[in-house]
Structure formats: C-alpha cells, structure tokens
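Need residues for this backbone.
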C-alpha cells in the first residue's frame, strides 16, 4: 500500500503492518525532514564528483567565508 493510500485510512482500519510502516515513516520524517525526497540529477552528479575529488577546503576557511566564528 502506498503512503498516500495509508494517509487516507483511519488508524482503526489499518493492519499492524500498515501501522508499523506509518510509525517508521513518521519517525524518519522527524529525524530527517528531507526523507523521501529525491535529489535532482545535476546535484547528485556534483556530489559524486565532489566525493571523488582530492581537493579539500579547510573548515576554518569555509567558516570564514560564511562569516562564522570558529
């Protein structure tokens, strides 16, 4: 059953498995508000390239550029 279909059911009408799925999804969303969202293809590509790159920027430099105290 899809999350959309579960959203339309009453808790009393759910099976134990459906209720467990609902609880898991609520917990995951609470921990990570982006849970279930997909990355755009270009962002996924940039992340993969970044992970493969040997170039690293010191955290102090990043903090300075963002105006954060370090």
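Answer:
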């Amino acid at each position: 059953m899809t999350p959309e279909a579960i959203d339309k059911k009453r808790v009393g009408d759910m099976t134990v498995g459906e209720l467990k799925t609902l609880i898991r999804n609520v917990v995951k969303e609470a921990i990570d508000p982006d849970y279930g969202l997909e990355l755009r293809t270009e962002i996924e590509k940039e992340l993969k390239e970044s992970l493969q790159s040997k170039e690293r920027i010191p955290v102090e430099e990043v903090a300075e550029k963002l105006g954060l105290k370090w």
